[in-house]
Amino acid sequence: MPEMNDAERRKFLLDGTKTGKLATVRKDGSPHVVPVWYDLDGDSLVFTTGAETVKGRNIKREPRVCMAVDDQAPPYSFVMIEGTAELSEDPEELYHWAKRIAARYMGQAKAEAFGKRNSGEGEVLVRITPSKIISYRDVTA
Amino acid sequence: MPEMNDAERRKFLLDGTKTGKLATVRKDGSPHVVPVWYDLDGDSLVFTTGAETVKGRNIKREPRVCMAVDDQAPPYSFVMIEGTAELSEDPEELYHWAKRIAARYMGQAKAEAFGKRNSGEGEVLVRITPSKIISYRDVTA
């Protein structure tokens, strides 16, 4: 399987509206995975979530996380990023990223509305610093 | 967010070539998530993997797993399934599912070749019995 270089991976992660499947670990030690909207800040993955959601609580307890992003059609490509998550409640930073991420996934016209919703009371910004990255393109080619 | 009923969820899980993002837990307690090709056997999720891959080894140690399947375009829909995985090395069962899954993801013409590859030496069949399911459609509608 050919590996992506850094530029290819960056393009892959930012093209279109691919979601990140964020895996965290529950208090009982079992895994949890749900889709999130994300963006890149340099090499870091950035997304917002409710502090009291399952993933929000899991990250607070266990900051080691893993995210998978893939193209679900032949020839299939995917990126897996393991890393450590940091939480921020800074309102300006939170709104900046929530709006930017909303523009990516919902379009510019809806960016402000979704940006406000996703940076309101109880929301937090999550930043993942990668520690390990795997990225394969055209897995079945 | 509207929830899917059982028929809607089944259709969603089987339509097209959506991959399952399978989350497992590593020996060191950190989460791991990668895409897998899957099918349904009744209510169970079925897929094949190498016994010595990271996910294969993780499942053997900790059978509690979680899988996310989503539509990565507006209005966004997703299913999350938590459950317990069982492994089988029965060659007939393994080839049956590997071929069927390959037909789904690669087309009938390539089913035999990919089915053989994914049921060869070192491959195992994984069957997830769901314990908890969440399924939302049209999240942003």
Can you walk me through this structure?
Two copies of one chain form a homodimer. Chain A has one domain (6-136): Pnp Oxidase, Chain A (Roll). Chain A has four helices and seven strands. Chain A has helices at residues 6-14, 54-61, 91-106, 111-117; strands spanning 20-25, 31-36, 39-41, 44-50, 64-71, 77-88, 123-136. Chain A has a seven-stranded antiparallel β-sheet with strand order 2-1-5-6-7-4-3. Chain A is globular, with a radius of gyration of 15 Å. The model of chain A has no long low-confidence stretch (mean pLDDT 97). Chain A binds chain B through residues 16-19, 21-25, 29-35, 62, 64-68, 70, 72-74, 76, 78, 80, 82, 105-106, 114, 140, and chain B through 16-19, 21-25, 29-35, 62, 64-68, 70, 72-74, 76, 78, 80, 82, 105-106, 114, 140.
Describe this protein with a few key phrases.
4 helices, homodimer, 141 residues, 7 strands, Pnp Oxidase, Chain A, alpha+beta
